[in-house]
Amino acid sequence: MSSKVAEAASRAAEHVLQHPIQAAAYVVVAGASLVFLLVAYVVYLSYLRPNPLRHIPGPPAHPLLGNFLLMAKEPGALAEVRWSRQYAKDGMFRTQAFFGKPGIAFLRPKALRKILVEEPYLYPKPPQTSKLLALVAGRGLLTIEGEPHKKMRKTMNQAFSLTSLIDQFPVYYDKIYPMVEVMQRQIDAAPGGGGAKANEAIIDVDALAARALLDIISLTAFGYDTDSIRNPDAELYVAYHQVGALQTGKNQAMLMPLLQIPGTGWLLDKASDWSDWSGQLAKLEKGSKLRDLFLLLNGMHRIKRVSREILRLQLNSGERVALKPGSKAIIDIIEETNQSENESRVRSLKEAEDNMIIQVLTFLGAGHETTTSGVSWTLWNLATHPEKQDKLRAECKALLDSEPRPPYSAIKALTYLDAVVNETMRLTPPVPRTLRYASKDDVIDGTFVPKGTLLPIFSRAINTFPETWGDDAMEFRPERWSDLPAGYDRTFSMLTFLAGAHGCIGRTMSYLEMKAMVAVLVANFRFEPIEKDYQPVMEALITMKPQGGLPLRVSKV
C-alpha cells in the first residue's frame, strides 16, 4: 500500500515539474476558491443565516470573531459593564462569539435563577470553556457536568462545611503572620530605597498574598506545607506564578480560537504531561509567538508533577492537619472516595492516582487564585480610599490588639470588614465572566432561547448593574452594605461566586481567608498607591488580577 502511495506521489511531483504553469494555475484557482468560500461564509453568518435573536439590542460584532476583539480591548470586563448600560434596557443584551455563534446575556434575577438554580444541568458550560478551565485546574469539579458533577459536589461538600472551616480557621494565622514578618523585614531593609520614604517599602502585595494563600490551601486541604511565604523560590508557587502571568488579552486571543478546534484541549493537556518543555523554551527568544504556549505547558507540567508528589507523600505518610473529630480535609475525602471506587471496580494504580490528582489540581488552583485576587483588590481599594482604610483599621486594631489570633466568631462580628470585603468582591469579582449554553429550545424570562444559544454570565456587569445598584454602582462604597437597595436580591444581584449547583464550593472559605488576612494586614500596615496617577491594569483570562502584580507603598502603623 505504502509503495503505491509513494508511486502516486512521485508521478504527481513529476507532472508538476513538467507542467509548472498549469500547476500554478491550479494553485491560484484553489486559493481563489477558498477565499470565495470564506467570504461567502462570512456573508452568510452576518446577513443571511436565520437568527431569532436579531431583535435584541447588542454591541457590534465581527463576523468571525464576534465581540471578542471589543472585549479584549477593554481589560477588566469593562466592555460587558458598558454594554449592560448601553443595551440592557430590558435586562438583557445580545452577544456574538466566534464564527457568529449567537448569545444572550441576562442580567435580572428571574432569568439567572432559571439558568443557575432551577435547571442548571440544562445549561452546561460549552466545551471550549471547560477546556480552558481544565488546562489550569484539571478535569474536576470546575469542568464536569450532569450526574458526575452532582455526585462529586455532594462528596466534596463535607470538606467545606462551616464546622470544618471553623476548625481549620486558626491555621490561617500560621501563614498570615509569617507574611507580616516578611513585609516588616522588607520595610526595615529598604529605608528610603526604591522611591520609598523612611519606614516604608514598595511591596508587591499580590505576590505575597498568593504565596501565603497557596500555603494555607496546601496545609488545610492536603496537610502539606509548601512554605512559599518563607521561600519565594518554592517550585509549586513559581509554577503557578508562571501560569498566572500568562493571563493576558494576547494569550486569550491565541487560546480561545485554538480551543475551538476539536481535540486541541486534550492535546494541550497531554502535552503538559509528556514533557516539561524546558528544552524548547531555551531555544525561543522573548517575544516569540510560541514562547507563551511553551511557558503554559512547562508551568502546568511542574504543577502536576509537584501535586503528584504531594499526593503520594500525604497518602503514604498519613500525616494531616489536626482537625476536630468529625471534620474532614479534602485529602481525607479524596482518599475515602478512591478506596470506595477501588472496591466497586478493579482499577490500575495509575488510573486511581490520575483520578485523585485531578481533585488536587482543582483545589490547589481555584483555592488560592481567586482569593488572592480578592485580597489584592481589597488592598487596592483601601489604598485609594484612605479614610475607609482608617475606619477599617480602627475596627480591626480594637480586636487584634487584645487578641492577635481572633477566632472565627470574632472576625465574623467585624461589620465594617464584612462590608469592605463584600464591596470589593462586588466591584471586582475574581472571575468576572463565565459561559453556559442552552441544551434545548427554551423560554427564559419571556424570551425564546433556541437550542445552542450561548448564555454568558457576566458577573461584573451583573454586580454593577445600575438597575439594581444605582448610578454609583462602579464606586467603592462599603457603606452601601448597611443600607442595601430595594431591588437587591441576595442570590442574584451579586454573582461573584455564582449560585446553585455550580456555585463556588469554596465561597465561605475564601471569605474567611480574606477577612482574616485583610484584618491582620490593615492592623499592622498602611497601604498607599506607589504614585498619584498609578492605575493597575486588570487582566481577566480566567481570574481578574493586576497585570504584573500589585506594588503598593507600605508602611508600619
Topology (SSEs and partners):
Layout: H1 2-18, H2 20-48, H3 68-73, H4 78-86, E1 92-96, E2 102-106, H5 109-118, H6 127-137, H7 146-156, H8 162-189, E3 200-204, H9 205-222, H10 235-244, H11 249-259, H12 264-274, H13 278-283, H14 291-317, H15 330-344, H16 349-383, H17 386-400, H18 408-412, H19 415-427, E4 434-437, E5 442-444, E6 447-449, E7 454-457, H20 459-463, H21 466-469, H22 507-524, E8 525-529, E9 538-539, E10 545-546, E11 551-556
Antiparallel strand pairs: 1-2, 3-11, 4-7, 5-6, 8-11, 9-10
CATH fold-level name of the domain at 138-431 and 496-556: Cytochrome p450
Largest sheet, spatial ordering of strands: 3-11-8
The portion of residues assigned to helices is 55-70%
Approximate strand percentage? 5-15%
User: Architecture of the domain at 138-431 and 496-556, according to CATH?
Assistant: Orthogonal Bundle
Distance between the termini: 81 Å
Report the CATH C-level class of the domain at 138-431 and 496-556: Mainly Alpha
Q: What is the overall number of helices?
A: 22
Unreliable sequence segments: none
> CATH homologous superfamily name of the domain at 138-431 and 496-556?
Cytochrome P450
The tally of strands reads 11
Structural class: mainly alpha
Output the radius of gyration: 26 Å
Taking the sheet with the most strands, its summary is: 3 strands, antiparallel
What is the overall shape?
A: globular
Q: How much is the average pLDDT?
A: 84
